[in-house]
Amino acid sequence: MSAGLVLFLFFVCLLIAIPISTSLGIVSVLPGAFDASFTASATYVVRSMFGGLDSFPLLAVPMFILSGIIMARGGISKRLFDLFSYFIGKKTAGLPCAVVVTCLFYGAISGSGIATVAAVGSMTIPLLVNLGYDKKFCTALVAVAGSLGVIIPPSIPFIMFGMASGVSVSDIFLAGIVPGLLIGGMLMVYAVVYCKKNGEDKEKINHEIDQLREQGLWKVFKSSFFAVLSPIIILGCIYSGIASPTEAAVISVFYSLIVSLFIYKSLKFKDLYPVFAEAVKTYAPILFILAASIAFSRVLTLMQIPQTISGWILENFSSKVVILIVVNIFLLLVGMIMDTTPAILILTPILMPIMTGIGVNPIHFGVMMVVNLAIGFVTPPIGVNLFVASSLTDIPVVDIAKRALPLIGYFLIALLLITFIPQISLILL
Fold first, then answer.
1. pLDDT given for residue 240 in this prediction
2. pLDDT along the chain (429 residues), means of 10
3. Alpha-carbon distances, residue 264 vs 226, 254, 292, 346 (angstroms)
4. In whole angstroms, what is the distance from residue 429 CA to residue 423 CA?
5. What's the sign of the alpha-carbon dihedral 303, 305, 307, 308?
6. How far is CA 350 from CA 51, 172, 223, in A?
7. What's the chain look like in SS3?
8. Are 38 and 302 in contact (CB under 8 A)?
């Protein structure tokens, strides 16, 4: 069976709405089924699935998912938002900017874009609407800013990229900090431009911030202290050498449990079973996609598809700038139709030889790839952040997508800077 036919059948399966994990499993088995001499028999595919999941770095994924859910149920996002609102709430676009900063910090706790949108959006959107902001603008802002959850470390897609490429997860975590801050800054610039153009209800906003400030800085800071401390502990453990990313993920689970149960007392022991059940329900589909993606990537390697595609691109495009633009456009299109996890696991082995062939640092490429796919969180038809935001506000996905377009434009400007200025990603390494 030819490589082209395998890829064609994979996209056909996606178009007729066969689940991604099932589609990957089907096309992984087909080459061996039609050619008895091909190495990847059905037995080989199954062994690849189980063998690929036997990975210590991969254990960080369910741990960060569980930690993020515990933090969400524990009301961490509200405490973070109050702290940032205290300082910048009265400035132009102060509260929308506080939403973006909250997404940055919450992303550093959960490692998930979806969790960031759900936790921050459910709390901030009703508040901003009550203060006079347009509901569609607020919803679009949270949906796009939620994508920062997969760029700011610890990031689940970065863990996946490290697993697929062999680069250090700790290094790529570090590389994601400055790009995440850059994108957050660009989104805040848009919020300021929007609010200057459309105005704000300063009377309502000032009244709300005055009530918050009446509590005093110490009370607000004390309430949010353990929430702010969470990413510091997680990343501090990794970069001080105390713990690996996987061990830090386990630490984050225990930390979030202790804070939510005994300090904030926002969770009770009876609430833990639903929390653990939600974590299992969230991770189980990812687990199946992971297993099938690993098997499919090994089949692609045996068929020498990565080498073929890499050779074709390098032969037909000589300019490094053109190749980078082509790869970016390709990743943006993939992000629109495919979830982040299978996209990273399938495409990394294909695109990595191309990037290294033109002298791109693998860690820089990892950041570039995740930023591209993060934009896919807010672009139809998949756009999972759009669907989560829509479920919070009952605004149609198409309407949110339209209002998100200017924000995506600023996101793309940041992507171009990250692509063509490698030091943005590599400066902390």
1. 85
2. 76 79 83 76 82 78 83 81 92 94 86 82 90 94 92 89 90 94 95 94 92 91 87 85 87 90 89 90 80 80 77 82 92 82 85 90 96 89 82 89 93 95 94
3. 9, 14, 40, 42
4. 9
5. positive
6. 21, 19, 47
7. CCHHHHHHHHHHHHHCCCCHHHHHHHHHHHHHHHCCCCCCCHHHHHHHHHHHHCCCHHHHHHHHHHHHHHHHHCCHHHHHHHHHHHHHCCCCCHHHHHHHHHHHHHHHHHCCHHHHHHHHHHHHHHHHHHCCCCHHHHHHHHHHHHHHHHCCCCCHHHHHHHHHHCCCHHHHHHHCHHHHHHHHHHHHHHHHHHHHHHCCCHHHHHHHHHHHHHCCHHHHHHHHHHHHHHHHHHHHHHHCCCCCHHHHHHHHHHHHHHHHHHHCCCCCHHHHHHHHHHHHHHHHHHHHHHHHHHHHHHHHHHCCHHHHHHHHHHHHCCCHHHHHHHHHHHHHHHHHHCCHHHHHHHHHHHHHHHHHHCCCCHHHHHHHHHHHHHHHHHCCCCCHHHHHHHHHHCCCHHHHHHHHHHHHHHHHHHHHHHHHCCHHHHCCC
8. yes
Do the beta carbons of residue 420 and residue 324 sit within 8 Å? yes
Between CA 68 and CA 279 the distance in angstroms is 9
Residues across the chain: 429
Q: How far is residue 199's CA from residue 214's CA, in Å, rounded to a whole number?
A: 26
Task: Identify the pLDDT of residue 410.
Answer: 94
Residue 96, pLDDT score = 95
For the whole model, what pTM was predicted? 0.83
Distance CA 404, CA 392 (A): 16
* Among 381, 340, 404, residue whose Cα is nearest residue 143: 404
Provide the pLDDT for residue 1.
63
> What pLDDT, on the 0 to 100 scale, is given for residue 125?
92
What is the structure's pLDDT at 184?
95
Can you tell me the distance from the alpha carbon of 271 to that of 282, in angstroms, rounded to the nearest whole number?
17
What's the pLDDT at 204? 92
Q: Are 31 and 40 in contact (CB under 8 A)?
A: yes
